[in-house]
Amino acid sequence: MNRRALAPALIIATAAVAVLTGCAGDVPMEPTANANDPACADVIVRLPETIGELPLRHTNAQATGAWGDPAAVLLKCGIEPSGPTTDQCVSVDGIDWIIDRSREPLFRFEAYGREPGLEVIVDSEKVSGTTVVTELSAVAQLLPQTRQCSAVTDNDDIPGNPE
What we know:
There is one protein chain. By secondary structure, the protein is α+β, with helices and mostly antiparallel strands. The protein has one domain. Helix content is about 25%, strand content about 25%. The chain has an 8-stranded antiparallel beta sheet with strand order 1-2-3-4-8-7-6-5. The radius of gyration is 19 Å and the shape is globular. About 30% of the residues are buried.
């Protein structure tokens, strides 16, 4: 086969590989300082394949997870856990989640009192906060609990829920 015939064949083969492997690619993320904690590895290998309708995506950083295309849920394990806070706290399936509303419609949920720390950023225009923390509470339980919220609000108060 000459070079002129080889070039179109190579382009077709490359396009076929892109279609078969998906075009989404890795979600770019930064690892946390404690991403190499063995407890984070336990969490990451047990992440759910979907959250709501959003499929799990590959990321380019250790101890991270992402769902949706474009990514609407971002998870990081190994964050420095928050200390006592006045932020809202909800309890879902035995996990206390503190909620940062400062970047609405993006909400930051942290599994409070867990070490290493676990945070989840949720685009509430794509998926409800309740769905996300409910789906992730099982993996958050894998992290050792060191403290609890002193004041817990009702789950109906989780931001980003459909009206």
